[in-house]
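Thread: Modeling a multi-component assembly for a lab meeting

Hi all, long-time lurker, first post. My supervisor asked me to bring a structural picture of a complex we are working on to next week's group meeting, and I have zero experience with this. I have the sequence lines for every component (1126 residues in total). Could someone generate the structure of the whole assembly? Inputs are pasted exactly as I received them:
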Amino acid sequence: MRIVIVGGVAGGMSCAARARRLDESAEIVVLERGAHVSFANCGLPYFVGGEITEERSLLVQTPQSLRAALALDVRTGSEVTAVDISAKTVSVRTEDGTYELSYDALVLSPGASALRPPLPGLDSPRVRTLRTVEDAVALRDEVLAGARRAVVLGAGFIGIEAAEALARQGLEVSVVELAPHPLPPLETELAWLITQELGELGVEVRTGIAAASVEHGDDADVVVLADGARLAADIIVLSVGVWPDTAPFEAAGITCERGAIVVDAHGRTSAPGVWAAGDATVSVDAVTGIRRPVALAGPANRAGRLIADDILRPDDARALPHPVGTAIVRVGRLTAALTGANRAALDAAGIEYRTLHLHPNQHAGYFPGAAQVHLVVHIRTADGALLGAQAVGTEGVDKRIDVLATAIRAGLRVDDLIDLDLAYSPPYGQAKDPVNLAGMVGENVLAGTLRLWYPEDLDEARENALILDVRTPAEYATGFVPSSLNVPHTELRDRLDEVRAAAAGRAVRVMCQSGVRSAIAHRVLVQAGFDSASLSGGMLTLRAWLGARQNEVLERPGVLAHA
Amino acid sequence: MRIVIVGGVAGGMSCAARARRLDESAEIVVLERGAHVSFANCGLPYFVGGEITEERSLLVQTPQSLRAALALDVRTGSEVTAVDISAKTVSVRTEDGTYELSYDALVLSPGASALRPPLPGLDSPRVRTLRTVEDAVALRDEVLAGARRAVVLGAGFIGIEAAEALARQGLEVSVVELAPHPLPPLETELAWLITQELGELGVEVRTGIAAASVEHGDDADVVVLADGARLAADIIVLSVGVWPDTAPFEAAGITCERGAIVVDAHGRTSAPGVWAAGDATVSVDAVTGIRRPVALAGPANRAGRLIADDILRPDDARALPHPVGTAIVRVGRLTAALTGANRAALDAAGIEYRTLHLHPNQHAGYFPGAAQVHLVVHIRTADGALLGAQAVGTEGVDKRIDVLATAIRAGLRVDDLIDLDLAYSPPYGQAKDPVNLAGMVGENVLAGTLRLWYPEDLDEARENALILDVRTPAEYATGFVPSSLNVPHTELRDRLDEVRAAAAGRAVRVMCQSGVRSAIAHRVLVQAGFDSASLSGGMLTLRAWLGARQNEVLERPGVLAHA
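Re: Modeling a multi-component assembly
Sure thing. I ran the full set together rather than chain by chain. Output:
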């Protein structure tokens, strides 16, 4: 039996390795059009930034090591240009010419290429991508050769990593992003923290704007933006998205959807004996059911492995799980991570949801180094099912998102989070872990014990309600919503008459710094007969939300105008 | 309605706070016999060790702050000495005398006291416990007053934290533990890493031995061990376990089991209108069903909250979940954490299980700072249900144990771990996270694709099988099992005849450094017709297991004798 695998990274190599472990007798040929297989594609920005110093560190495996360990026939510089699905052959182009190779099973894991928008001047040699080891080495060489200014087109995960890497190397870096904020999948109120951190790193962020053209110059190129701004650049990194590399397979009659290969629950394509995995395939989102390619290493590796199972032991092969879509990125001192669906995906899928905001410490507040995890959790209104979560902070972000990703995969509801026994000791967590706290807030919301209002409701609240700020006077003085009333939560029970007079029959919208004290105050108010709601995430969330919008309520970034 | 709560830490205080949020009109009285409520009991060792510098940092709340925020009537220095369950009153002893207090609902959260074994001389003033803020302040005062030598009796979590704290302050510290290794709930092969780290910290560890007596002296006491060894000590920290503080409640006729209060699914005791939470209650282990008190903050807080629900909105109150029993401790540079059941608990419960050992890096190996997570996972033989997990390492331990604790709570099976979408980027994880890898190993074991052997089988393997070491010759030369054959896994396919000749009809027991290469080799051997098995966790696990046993195969600690 000959298994031919197209693409020697992530999905393809996982498939090859698994196939060998299952079957010593199979002939396993891996065709990779690039110069390297199984390389550390996620490590490329860190090589450019100088944290990974050796090029060979990026080469996790070589054709030689794979032959020795797993008896794989790995052929680099070998591009599959055509497939004959009835003859069961592929055409392989190498620098020495083209040959035909027959297969019993064909696994397509070609990945995706950098999307190249139809932008005048994008053919400049100063325009780079960061997809291969060669890309990374070339970029690093330019950095070492004294490049001074870089423009990164696209502020997605890789764009941000590239921007930080270049800034670390001392370049002046601008990032241009069409979406309203960097890391577009992140919710607005969390992305603001990233925007600020990029500023700390010396990266200029230009969001909500498109690049219009690239003007070639002798000394430097100029990226011209839609508003006419001109950004000189020695290096331009193109990182506005990817597109499945599936032309020869679609041409062979394999069913594709917007360029991505359609697969069934076992990774089988429309052609008999042909499977596909990774960035070039259509996935079904586990939360929303939306169909789209998911460019993540984890699901690709998993699909490759399960496809090997399906090829070699089809009766026992498990189905590919739908990806939950967990991702993480380091930005300066911060970590941003997300799992499941965000607001945009939930809105697109027509799912009704509530959002929770929390800012708990990552470990006991009395232990040195306590720092906030800024956490957003979306739950289904109907039953409290966990739909998605995001977090930003300096520490403990990855842990909470991984726990929530596990909970989403397991189908837990928000109140189940209360019951998780998470490891607690002062250096590691809290007796009520941030995840447990999210469960408690969610349960209260579902039970009606807690009613939330959101930054989006600010204008309406200012118009029609009394905004009651229950922080201390000292906190209040650092910035507050104009015309809000300040009554510290510790004095609220004794000053209810004052609140009643100020409300004058209107609803009361309570707020504090993070949403904890305002929830307590809300309970006092509700039981005293007020129409009350507590601001989700408090001033911390409100500030970030307003900051991201450059809302005019702000006197200066991060601080609200005084009344 | 008057709710009386006995005990103002963890469970008791969680109950009080939740009750107030649910009901503004209830009278809520918290009776605490100590001087402080809601103090940071888990922070006490870090105060002794000087990492937490201010005593007030340990006082998370005060009676005043709780009155202001939550209108709680918190009475410290108030010990409940009796309960009349028919009259619904408690007797409260204070320094001013005793009074009776009636209740509509009574919540018992008295906690547990340090167990005092019947040891001659234990009444010395140099014998200390570490349960209260006063204990911690007194210990720290002695440290600052120049104490030089300390003996810690008991190497459980708090004993180890205390030992490290005292060693950090420059004291000579010995720890005495009856069990064969420190942190008795940890599996032997992981505990060895802790033993070594304690050595690095300058803590002398004496295990498998009891203290026989304490001899009082003018200058110092002497702890005499069962083997006659004499350890001089300025400070003796007693930390051999705890005992529920339930005497007055048992005397009142409330059903107890070996001193711990028996509660139903809603925390109700045998007496109407009386609930109980925390260290003083019997819990049912979520994995094994074994009934025992669980002295952990998380379950206590949760129980307190759910009891408030049951008192004030009984129709909507959820049942208390059975604790999974997750715990964590920092030891020097290491973190040790565990969740679910260990071997001892599984053996006691008669559950058939398999054990997996892995040593993956916490993040991408090519990214700076990669370090191994030493992971042990127990799965049910019958169906792969996750039963327990433990890990030790310098980084990423807490995250993996929290993910596994979540998976256990959710009832996932080991192969479900493959499907978890955990956050990956080089600084945070691996495209195949350690937890995913555990799932793959477990699936292979359940499917029969991988057959494991264990350090426990070493003697039998040496006698009846060929031990085949597939590491490189350089690795092999650093220590190996006597009479084992070294064939690197990359040469195995070409040297099968050699293996066949050496095996001479015997089984082959393969091993490598961590269990990854030996699993590949196992597949080659099985398909070539050998009776083969792969050493779980490889030489890393074997060394730790032998080290913990001071096995004579060792020539020097950590390195096996050469043949």
